[in-house]
Design brief:
alpha+beta; about 20% strand; Alpha-Beta Plaits; about 120 residues; four-stranded antiparallel sheet
Length: about 120
């Protein structure tokens, strides 16, 4: 299992509330219904709480997304689907792609916490 983790910042001109509504109500369903998204085992949106912002101009990160894939081949396959350009175009509607940070990681090494059995996908 590999995970694509992205640190997200909203596009200039969007308020935090507008950003989160678009991410939840438009982009999430687009991923879920796409051929590209069919390679994703699990898609998580981790939104920053709206009451954590210091006004609408707060320049911090707006959230984290985590997409789980069976392996690197599945990760690459999702980007190779014919509808991936549509996904990327949608990303440009609400994300500042110049300030987006991402990394692909392997299965985690548990250092402390619950036993691995309690998280079947971890």
């Amino acid at each position: 299992m590999v995970r694509l983790t992205c640190l997200l910042r909203r596009k200039d001109g969007l308020t935090p509330a507008e950003f989160h509504a678009y991410w939840r109500d438009v982009h999430g369903p687009l991923i879920k219904s796409s051929k590209s998204g069919s390679h994703v085992v699990r898609y998580e949106q981790h939104p920053r709480p709206l009451d954590d912002y210091n006004g609408d101009d707060d320049a911090g990160f707006d959230g984290v997304t985590v997409q789980w894939f069976e392996d690197m081949d599945a990760y690459r396959a999702h980007m190779g689907e014919p509808d991936f350009p549509e996904i990327w175009t949608d990303i440009g509607h609400f994300l500042d792609t110049d300030r987006m940070h991402f990394i692909v990681t392997e299965h985690p090494r548990l250092v402390m916490g619950d036993e691995a059995d309690s998280f079947p996908l971890a």
